[in-house]
Automatic annotation (TrEMBL):
The keyword Transferase applies. It catalyses: L-threonyl-[protein] + FAD = FMN-L-threonyl-[protein] + AMP + H(+). The keyword Flavoprotein applies. Residues 1-23 form the signal peptide. Keywords: FAD, Flavoprotein, Magnesium, Metal-binding, Signal, Transferase. Its cofactor is Mg(2+). One of its GO terms (molecular function) is metal ion binding. The lineage of its organism: Bacteria, Pseudomonadati, Pseudomonadota, Alphaproteobacteria, Rhodobacterales. This is FAD:protein FMN transferase.
Length: 229
């Protein structure tokens, strides 16, 4: 059983009101991925086709990283403790995780999944796991026990990975680069984490509102946030 993260960000973007003879209207595409709503905002004469391609790419990447899909690469790795011929994207994401793990002196550790799942299961039942259970789950963690190369990803028995701390941002970055390659310079991608290229087509930066009510703007930057539940 997976605990869903409370969505912490809401988008606030005005409709593009420029003369349609001069520029395309703002197009808003929505979908679902990794248990969250996905929104893409862009202005382009061929926006529906471009947005559909972006959504297809998101769906492809979800089949790699999702813990909700039993057929995803990540789910198969967790179930079998090995994955042969991993995709380039999975290896790229694991390499990123390796760098962040080192940069945070081990604080970022995607092998936390067994411990997280134990907490999720017990709190769903209305009680915290006991000390013995927690210690048993902790023994299944440890980034140094993961092995991966172009041929295979390997886990030790009982281990499991979660990429929920990085996959949404990873996908947002990939989709943003895809749209940039289509010639778009002003786009906002929200996969649960935000990536802005350029500014709002109407002018100015992209306005974003936090669930707390605080507002901020984005231009050529990314924003990730979280919440305690």
């Amino acid at each position: 059983m997976q605990l869903s993260r409370r969505r912490f960000l809401t988008l606030s973007a005005a409709l593009f009101v420029a003369n349609p003879a001069q520029a395309a209207p703002l197009h808003r595409a929505r979908g679902q991925a990794l248990g969250a709503t996905v929104t893409i905002l862009l202005a382009h004469p061929d926006a529906p086709r471009i947005a559909a391609r972006a959504m297809a790419e998101i769906a492809r990447l979800e089949r790699i990283f999702s813990l909700y899909d039993p057929g995803s690469e990540l789910s198969r790795l967790n179930a079998e403790a090995r994955l042969d011929a991993p995709s380039f994207e999975l290896l790229d994401c694991l390499s990123l995780c390796d760098r962040v793990h080192a940069a945070t002196a081990g604080a970022f550790d995607p092998t936390i999944q067994p411990l997280w799942a134990s907490y999720a299961r017990h709190f769903a039942e209305g009680a915290a796991p006991d000390a013995g259970t927690l210690e048993a789950e902790r023994r299944k963690t440890g980034w140094h026990r993961l092995r991966f190369d172009a041929a295979q990803v390997r886990l030790e028995p009982g281990m499991a990975l979660t990429l929920n701390g990085v996959a949404q941002g990873f996908i947002a970055d990939r989709v943003s680069e895809l749209l940039k390659a289509e010639g778009l310079g002003d786009i906002l991608v929200d996969t649960g984490e935000l990536r802005a290229l350029g500014g709002h087509p109407e002018g100015g930066d992209w306005p974003v509102a936090l669930a707390s009510g605080e507002g901020l703007t984005l231009r050529d930057m990314a924003l990730a946030s979280s919440a305690p539940r």
